[in-house]
UniProtKB/TrEMBL annotation:
InterPro entries: DUF4386. The chain crosses the membrane at residues 21-44, 72-93, 105-129, 157-174, 186-204, 210-231. This is DUF4386 domain-containing protein. It comes from the Bacteria. It comes from Polyangium jinanense. Keywords: Membrane, Transmembrane, Transmembrane helix. Pfam families: DUF4386 (PF14329).
């Protein structure tokens, strides 16, 4: 009996970080998950990858291997941040609804794992590009193009997983009022658009050029909520007021 009381007393004295601490970690993870891919998409990819130019893309990657690897590193940072974001989200929102938070955690963590697989496909591209001189240039370019296409398709699949996790997290933010409901509601709308756009790309890839606008609001949302959580944390309603 005394031993049980001692264990209970010891457990009660274990320091548990405040929700706002986890919320600030969530905010930082949001920024780490969105800023690196934007930099990659805007500053690196346009200089290396040109749609329809198979041989030229392979040649540019071979000529600028460090730049291509920098893009891979930025993607790896993004997906590592997604894994951190998944855990931090769960830590913040589990008190609201543990079961729904766990479901969302699984989907967002799956996004991070699948994302790391796409980075590995990019690493194969780098290896093939460096070995072009030892291979037939046309064959190497075709293999590089195939891997880049696989990466692009994989992104649509992982975005579906992202949305299946992000929408429940935003819903929990909305119902808990941890952040302004307009912000969390905007997130639900953004991730729903991304989900529809990604499913369209998977089922009808010929319309991919029309769905690109569905992804832009999500970038704005993640930047906004990332800064909000990092600077302000969450507003936890007191038990008395409830």
């Amino acid at each position: 009996m005394d031993t049980a009381l001692q264990i209970t007393d010891h457990a009660s004295r274990i320091h548990t970080p405040a929700p706002s601490t986890y919320a600030r970690i969530t905010g930082l993870a949001y920024l780490l998950a969105i800023v690196p891919p934007v930099l990659n998409l805007v500053l690196i990819q346009p200089h290396l990858v040109q749609a329809g130019d198979v041989a030229g893309t392979a040649a540019r990657i071979a000529s600028h291997p460090t730049l291509f690897r920098l893009g891979l590193a930025l993607d790896l940072v993004m997906f590592a941040a997604v894994l951190l974001l998944s855990a931090a989200h769960y830590a913040v929102l589990a008190p609201v609804d543990r079961n729904l938070s766990l479901v969302a955690l699984v989907f967002r963590a799956s996004e991070g794992v699948l994302g790391c697989v796409t980075v590995l496909a990019g690493a194969f591209v780098a290896v093939l590009a460096e070995g072009r001189t030892a291979l037939d240039a046309t064959q190497a370019a075709a293999q590089i193009d195939l891997l880049l296409r696989v990466r692009a398709v994989g992104m649509d699949y992982l975005l579906v997983l992202m949305c299946l996790g992000a929408i429940p997290f935003c819903w929990l933010f909305y119902t808990s009022r941890y952040v302004p409901q307009r912000l969390s509601g905007f997130g639900i709308v953004c991730y729903t658009l991304i989900l529809l756009g990604s499913l369209t790309n998977i089922l009808m890839p010929q319309y991919a050029s029309y769905t690109v606008l569905a992804f832009a609001p999500g970038t704005l949302f993640e930047l906004t909520i990332g800064v909000w959580l990092l600077l302000r944390g969450v507003s936890v309603p007191s038990r008395a007021s409830s």
